[in-house]
Amino acid sequence: MAEKKRPNIVWITLDHLVYANHKKQSGYPKMPRFDQLAKEGMVFNNAFSVCPLCQPCRASMLTGQYPHKHGMVMNDGNAGVRLEFDAEDKLFQHHLQDAGYRTGYFGKWHMGEERTAIDYGFEGFSVEGYGHPYWSKEYKDYLAEKSLPEAEVEVEWWVGHPDWQGRSIRLCDFEKPYSAPHLLMEASGKLNNAESHEAYFLAHMAEKWLADRAQDGEAFCMRVDMWGPHHPFWVAEPFLDTVDPKSLEQYPSFGSDLEHRPSHHRKLMDYRKEVSPWREWDEFAWLLARSHEHTALVDDAVGRVIDAISKHGLAENTIVIYTADHGGSLATNGYGIDKGWMMIEETIQVPLAMRWHEHIDAESSCDKFVTNMDIFSTVLEAGSANIPENTDSRSMLQLAQGKSGEWAEDMMLEHHGHYGIAHFQRLIRYKNYKYVAHLDDIEELYDLEADPYEMNNLALGDGHQGVLEDMRQRLYKNMKQYNDDSADASKLLVQIGLQIG
To answer: Which end of the chain is more exposed for a tag (fewer CB within 10 A), N or C?
Structure first.
């Protein structure tokens, strides 16, 4: 009997997608390439970020462990937490390499300032830290190959530099991602040429690598990690001005005083008011429109990668996974900008679709609770690689193939804070309920079926004590299962009337 050919794997991750609830609120963002992939395979309707913050989540996708285990609980080593992996750490690509796979990585890394994905055994392209490719040799070679102009932006708004409005800047002039004024602050601008956007640069490099793998026939796994649609929203034609801000209905939680929320939510809102002069919906709506346009641009670039899989004859035996690391709070939850540290639906929900011709039914869907950390075990099982015993990740492969099997009925997510400010939080989803426990603050409980925008905190009343106690017990069970037993974790459980034994 002929040996079964191992599947290739293409894993695409967007960064900071303003997505959850906006889709049903206004129909945006438009992501036709994601929608097409979902139609050709399975869409996971309840997919979440294991931690809605870049570095902790990305480290979990690489290790299959919760942030409280791998230790990168905040971005960039803030508050003295772990900054990057050790050189000898074994990440998902190492397990695949042991199984005979070539592994490629193109795009955002955001795992410390000293090493990139290439230093951990990947082929491809990445940049230290948060990165951005505009000053790299590879990007300049891409411009020369395609006869493209350098990326230049007419700034519309820049939270840290309002005096830059109307100024044109060349993105290649910023030699480091955190140079001041840096590229990462909430900003919007008109880009001179869409093809000069980093998303198309990444797609071009990924396609070249796919073409080489098609020629040599080796089994491969390739990650493509876009920097977008994370702000800044650099948008060019044909995407520029395609979303009318007046078509975006005011978001239900926009302008909320958040009095029903933990006090640190209001603290974050106050900070947002300090950095942004805006208070009215129409002032936010135009930036939200730019965000949606930026998403459409990035999704179009992702489509180039998906098309290349077919172009090079790889589609039939290639698993394609399309997701995001986390969401964003723009124009929601009390003048939202960025994501902050709130575990709201807008920051924790992510899209997730998986296609594998003849193995995953087209137009199928799954309602089980899954996280983007679960992709770790999924790709290892698909590649017949070793799944480490200490993983917190669960393979979704059986779910994707419509096979029955055990799957947890609840799910835990976590957060430890942002901007160097600690806010220890644990979240449980079960059926239509969402529960969040906050260290040194109040609890949250929502019936998301009746209250999808989290406007009525049921933990503040007396009518849902049975549900509240059940969710506390589920949190206890998950924290114990995943060895979440730090001093803060134990303090949190005592605070809500529980204690790990």
So the answer is: N
Q: How far apart are CA 325 and CA 47, in angstroms?
A: 11
Give the 3-state secondary structure of residue 193.
Answer: coil
pLDDT score recorded for residue 4: 64
* Cα dist from 469 to 445, 446, 475, 496, whole Å: 11, 13, 10, 9
C-alpha to C-alpha distance for 35 and 42, rounded to whole angstroms: 10
Q: What is the pLDDT of residue 184?
A: 52
Residue 163: per-residue pLDDT: 83
Please tell me the predicted confidence (pLDDT) of residue 179.
Answer: 46
Q: Are 45 and 400 in contact (CB under 8 A)?
A: no
Query: For residue 128, what is the DSSP state?
Result: S
CA angle (287, 126, 312) in 5-degree steps: 95
Are the C-beta atoms of 303 and 33 separated by less than 8 Å?
yes
Among residues 139, 140, 175, 170, the alpha carbon closest in space to that of 155 is found at 170
- Residue 5 is predicted with a pLDDT of 83
How many residues are given for the chain? 501
Measure Cα distances from 467 to 412, 471, 480 in Å: 16, 6, 20
Closest to 289 (Cα-Cα) out of 487, 50, 30, 466: 30
Ranges of residues in the chain with a pLDDT under 70 are 1-4, 175-185, 500-501
Report how far apart, in Å, the C-alpha atoms of 101 and of each of 116, 213, 215, 418, 459 are: 20, 11, 15, 36, 49
Helix or strand (DSSP H, E) at 370: strand 370-371
Q: Are 480 and 499 in contact (CB under 8 A)?
A: no
Phi, psi of 405 (to 5 degrees): 170, 170
Q: Determine which helix (DSSP H) or strand (DSSP E) holds 224, and give its type and residue range.
A: strand 220-229
Q: What 3-state class would DSSP assign to 382?
A: helix
What's the CA gap between 225 and 240, in Å, rounded?
23
- Taking the CB of residue 19, how many other CB atoms lie within 10 A of it? 25
Strand order in the sheet with 102-107: 123-126, 102-107, 220-229, 8-15, 318-324, 352-355, 42-44, 364-366
Please give the pLDDT value at position 1. 35
| Long-range Cβ contacts of 212-215 (<8 Å, 24+ apart) | 213/8, 213/102, 213/312, 213/314, 214/312, 214/313, 214/314
